[in-house]
Amino acid sequence: MLQHSAGPSSTGLAPVTTDDLGSAELLFKALASERRLQILAWLKDPVANFPPQQHGDPTKHGACNLFIVEKLGVSQPAASRHLKVLVDAGLVIPTRRKGWTYYRRNEDALSALADVVGSI
Amino acid sequence: MLQHSAGPSSTGLAPVTTDDLGSAELLFKALASERRLQILAWLKDPVANFPPQQHGDPTKHGACNLFIVEKLGVSQPAASRHLKVLVDAGLVIPTRRKGWTYYRRNEDALSALADVVGSI
DNA sequence: TAGTTAGATAACATTCTTGCTATGTTGCAG
DNA sequence: CTGCAACATAGCAAGAATGTTATCTAACTA
Fold this sequence. Notes:
The structure is a homodimer. Chain A has about 120 residues and is mainly alpha-helical. Chain A is about 50% helix and about 10% strand.
């Protein structure tokens, strides 16, 4: 079971109720940032968008935090907080392995977004 | 910040390019507020959600500003600014008639949201 | 013309967001 | 154990968001 920080639920999937304005707001807030949208776009294809990783499978666990930091062009803590926003919204899944942390898209949550938008 | 100044277009339809992170950010910012989501939800059915209007056709032009202000429970200027954010994002269309202003959903723009979300 | 009403704008305070630097914390290497 | 690398957290400053009250403008009405 993939478990991490203080996500809204222990399943890693955002508990989206299509008529719950509060959780919809949380999702939209996470998306309301060009940097975070950029991260999500990059994570669509980690292999193409990031340097080759020696240590983790990009297609399986996602891109290494370091690469995201570097490509974002902001300080490491700033990037870290952006990633936390995405993780807290359930849109991205972190994996800690050895000394590194990998991030990948949560395609289930991203698909569920369509329902949320459809309910607006 | 991006350019936008006047309303995105005189047609009332947002110029959404699905791969433009900037305009997607603008849309999500507009949606990243429980109050504004609430307004959009109410405007789905103006007749059901607002008192009867003597002066404008709710189904045609939307709900009167006054009713939205009152139902939101915030001051008139605060509600006015929320509505402006929605209008600027192209999600809501204002109609000025006589002394009143009516607001209705821009269903075209709201439908286009699905594409934006699908492109994330 | 004067008064009233709808609604936008101005000015301001408070809170949230986002950037930074500095410092913890954790795990691997020597 | 000691040092280093990866990354999270703390603390702070600047800008944006959101609320307020006060004011301005436009249109209707007496």
